Amino acid sequence: MRTIIEPFRIKTVEPIRWTTCEERARLLRAAHYNLFLLPAEDVLIDLLTDSGTGAMSTRQWAAIMEGDESYAGSKSFERFRQSVQEIFGYRHVIPTHQGRAAERILFSVMCKKGDVVPNNTHFDTTRANIEFVGAEAVDLPAQEGREPSTSHPFKGNMDVMALERLIERVGRERVPLVMLTITNNSGGGQPASLENIRAAHDVCSKHAIPFYFDACRFAENAYFIKLREKGYESKTPKQIAQEIFSLGDGCTMSAKKDGLANIGGFLCTNDDSLAQQEKNLLILTEGYPTYGGLAGRDLEAIAVGIEEVLYEDYLRYRIVSTAYLGNHIADQGVPIVQPPGGHAVYLDARAFLPHIPLEQFPGVALACELYLEGGIRSVEIGTLMFGGAARMDLVRLAIPRRVYTQSHIDYVIEVILEVWKRREGIRGLKLTYEAPFLRHFTAWLEPA
Ligand SMILES: Cc1ncc(COP(=O)(O)O)c(C=O)c1O
Question: How many Å apart are CA 88 and CA 21, to the nearest integer?
């Protein structure tokens, strides 16, 4: 059959609330034009993030009932460790409450002031955690990843030549590790190819630099490799994921994405001495190494989630339904990052609103209009999030996993096309408050 359907039935429903356009205009003012500051119940379709917003399966809920809440050495930790090791293959698995906790511990242990950490593109929490220890986070996306409108199968690739040049320029001793984000969230949810991952691994090996993955969306990346990279057509997503991780020395992971869980994360490494230091830090701020700030039931949900996320029928539906949204708006001329990503569609706000200067945050202005028009919440990934380092101003429509149906997505398409029609009348915004780091979460704005 040509129609690809949601590969599940719905057993529990959660009502969503309608608001009027006047209410939304008032709510937007009260939230200082920052959609993070809106009460979630005033949002109709919430595409703010795909992080922790997925629906769990019957198997996950059943596993939750098996949660062993023992402080030390719980059975749930053993199941979690086995499940993670089966796919990721690393010697040490350290649970954390979410991805950024894994990042903070990793960079605190591995980096110091003056160091440089390259990545295809750092996510905001990764960049902030590196900068917090006084090191520099450097983005090295491949050239094709810098151009939103051109289509390429692996726009999440790293510029491996630029990596070589960077190591030569700053010296190997200032590069404590290299990271690769799969898929590349800030660069448009685009995958990296295994060819590119292997090339980055080879450069790291040559210079004896540890190579780590930011693995949040590893299953989506693996499925893109299956669809798009020669030689992987007949491999399972799990085999591809295993091959990816075999090329690294460890990873950070937010289980709120491809862990199909509502909370959790982990840090993996093959290095015994690093693992010891990491566990010591973990005890200080997260918890004992067999729970790391999570409940036993959370570990159970993740153990099942990372297995289910690699099911091929799930990944087919996931990738196709995201592309459905992207292709329908692109067909009507709406500028998006091409091709649509795995977990999200990214509107190119600079091309959508060319009359709004960057210092008036075109991405934030566009996100506010989508809320005003139809109660849709999205997020800016651009000048508000990254300041002057932003290469693009994007509005990310992130699709929660197993939550919305095709008719929800049809509604989203209609709202975007309405905003597209009246784009010339949309105004920019100016900042009235900003925090010293990660300012986009709490910033206040008003019409410029
Ligand atoms: C690529 C990437 N890395 C790291 C993180 C941080 O994970 P968490 O939100 O669980 O701290 C995210 C979250 O969105 C992400 O997308």
Answer: 47
The SS3 of residue 148 is coil
| Atom nearest to 102 CA in ligand 1 | 11
Q: For residues 49-60, give the mean pLDDT.
A: 97
Is there an atom of ligand 1 within 6 Å of 256 CB? yes
> Position 313: which residue type?
D
Look at residue 408 in the predicted model and tell me its pLDDT: 96
C-alpha 433/C-alpha 447 separation (Å) is 13
Q: Is the pLDDT of residue 191 over 90?
A: yes
- How many Å lie between the centroid of ligand 1 and the Cα of residue 216? 7
Residue 264 in tokens: 């959790």
Tell me the two tokens of residue 365.
């202005």
257: CB partners within 8 A, 6+ apart: 50, 51, 216, 217, 343
**Cα of 249 from ligand 1 centre, angstroms:** 19
Quick one: which atom of ligand 1 is closest to the CA of 181? 1
* pLDDT tens readout for residues 213-254: 999 999 999 999 999 999 999 999 999 999 999 999 999 999
Q: How far is CA 132 from CA 104, 114, 118, 125, 284, in A?
A: 9, 12, 16, 10, 18
pLDDT tens digits for 127-160?
A: 999 999 999 999 999 998 888 888 899 999 999 9
Q: CB within 8 A of 97, min separation 6: which ones?
A: 263, 264, 265, 286, 292, 293, 294
Q: How far is the CA of 401 from the centre of ligand 1 (A)?
A: 15
Q: Ligand 1 in contact with 186 (CB < 6 A)?
A: no
- Residue 148 is predicted with a pLDDT of 80
Q: CB of 262 closer than 6 A to ligand 1?
A: no
pTM > 0.70:
yes
Q: How far apart are CA 62 and CA 88, in angstroms?
A: 24
* Index of the ligand 1 atom closest to the CA of residue 217: 1
